[in-house]
TrEMBL record:
<feature type="active site" description="Nucleophile">
    <location>
        <position position="33"/>
    </location>
</feature>
<feature type="active site" description="Nucleophile">
    <location>
        <position position="36"/>
    </location>
</feature>
<dbReference type="InterPro" id="IPR017937">
    <property type="entry name" value="Thioredoxin_CS"/>
</dbReference>
<keyword id="KW-0676">Redox-active center</keyword>
<feature type="disulfide bond" description="Redox-active">
    <location>
        <begin position="33"/>
        <end position="36"/>
    </location>
</feature>
<dbReference type="InterPro" id="IPR036249">
    <property type="entry name" value="Thioredoxin-like_sf"/>
</dbReference>
<dbReference type="GO" id="GO:0015035">
    <property type="term" value="F:protein-disulfide reductase activity"/>
</dbReference>
<feature type="site" description="Deprotonates C-terminal active site Cys">
    <location>
        <position position="27"/>
    </location>
</feature>
<keyword id="KW-1015">Disulfide bond</keyword>
<protein>
    <recommendedName>
        <fullName>Thioredoxin</fullName>
    </recommendedName>
</protein>
<keyword id="KW-0249">Electron transport</keyword>
<dbReference type="Pfam" id="PF00085">
    <property type="entry name" value="Thioredoxin"/>
</dbReference>
<feature type="domain" description="Thioredoxin">
    <location>
        <begin position="1"/>
        <end position="109"/>
    </location>
</feature>
<feature type="site" description="Contributes to redox potential value">
    <location>
        <position position="35"/>
    </location>
</feature>
<dbReference type="InterPro" id="IPR005746">
    <property type="entry name" value="Thioredoxin"/>
</dbReference>
<comment type="similarity">
    <text>Belongs to the thioredoxin family.</text>
</comment>
<dbReference type="InterPro" id="IPR013766">
    <property type="entry name" value="Thioredoxin_domain"/>
</dbReference>
């Protein structure tokens, strides 16, 4: 597990994501995926910066096919932002850190009811 990013699987998804007390970002990835490797350091940096407000997780789609199938993941990396067990936002592909920061800040506002 990378610093601040929790590795989850099909069996822990409900507990770690859907039942979480705070918003959760799930990074759906695979070890062979170049863009997944490229975005990982950005996600890890954001995890350090926003860990007080958001739980950061990653789910290997090769080892855990049920959860990605449930959420219609067709391309990776896909980052899904959850608030109170519901999908609040989704970003697919390699994107700039600023775009992820914007999505995180929006998620924090949603979770605070603003």
């Amino acid at each position: 597990m990378a610093d601040g990013v929790l590795e989850i699987d099909d069996s822990s998804f409900d507990k770690e994501v859907l039942q979480a007390d705070i918003p959760v970002l799930v990074d759906f990835w695979a070890p062979w995926c170049g863009p997944c490797k490229a975005i990982a350091p950005t996600v890890e940096a954001l995890a350090k910066e926003f860990s007080a407000n958001i739980k950061f997780t990653k789910c290997n789609v090769d080892e855990n096919p049920i959860t990605p199938g449930k959420y219609g993941i067709r391309a990776i990396p896909t980052l899904i932002f959850f608030n109170k067990g519901e999908v609040a936002d989704q970003i697919t592909g390699m994107v700039a850190k600023a775009k992820l920061e914007d999505a995180i800040n929006k998620l924090i506002l949603i979770s605070e009811g603003k």
